[in-house]
């Protein structure tokens, strides 16, 4: 059974830090690129960060560059999002996503989300 379980959300003040974790099971984690998305109330889900299956390539949305760091541990089947210098606009539900496009068919798994709230 495929599972992605996020941990580490919570309430933090502006300028604070949080680290989100996502524990994966039930699939070949090392073959999947991993993503963190977020969705704020009334807004569409937004891609925050991506890491390649081997961990050598990362990408970030402009609004978090220099503040967030995505990493993974393929031995532990886990992906992380270190979030520093948090701002109120970072408030959202954060979702972990695993995706493999090669070989087909595309496989796409989601966690249940974890709430991050940044207060003024």
List keywords for this structure.
mainly beta, 4-stranded antiparallel sheet, globular
What would you note in describing this structure?
This protein is mainly β and 120 residues long. 0% of the residues lie in helices and 53% in strands. It contains no helices and eleven strands. The protein has strands at 3-7, 10-13, 18-25, 33-39, 46-51, 58-60, 68-73, 78-83, 92-100, 107-110, 114-119. Strands 2, 4, 5, 6, 9, 10 and 11 form a seven-stranded mixed sheet that branches. β4 (33-39) and β5 form a beta hairpin. The chain starts with a strand and ends with a strand. The mean pLDDT is 97.
Give the arrangement of secondary structure elements.
Elements: E1 3-7, E2 10-13, E3 18-25, E4 33-39, E5 46-51, E6 58-60, E7 68-73, E8 78-83, E9 92-100, E10 107-110, E11 114-119
Parallel strand pairs: 2-11
Antiparallel strand pairs: 1-3, 3-8, 4-5, 4-9, 5-6, 7-8, 9-10, 9-11
């Amino acid at each position: 059974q495929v599972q992605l379980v996020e941990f580490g959300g919570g309430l933090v003040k502006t300028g604070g830090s949080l680290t989100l974790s996502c524990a994966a099971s039930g699939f070949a984690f090392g073959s999947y690129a991993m993503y963190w998305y977020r969705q704020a109330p009334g807004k569409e889900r937004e891609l925050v960060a991506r890491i390649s299956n081997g961990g050598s390539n990362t990408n970030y949305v402009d609004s978090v560059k220099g503040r967030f760091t995505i990493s993974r541990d393929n031995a532990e089947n886990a992906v992380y999002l270190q979030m520093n210098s948090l701002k109120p606009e970072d408030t959202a539900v954060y979702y972990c996503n695993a995706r493999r496009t090669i070989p087909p068919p595309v496989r796409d798994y989601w966690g249940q989300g974890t709430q991050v709230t940044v207060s003024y």
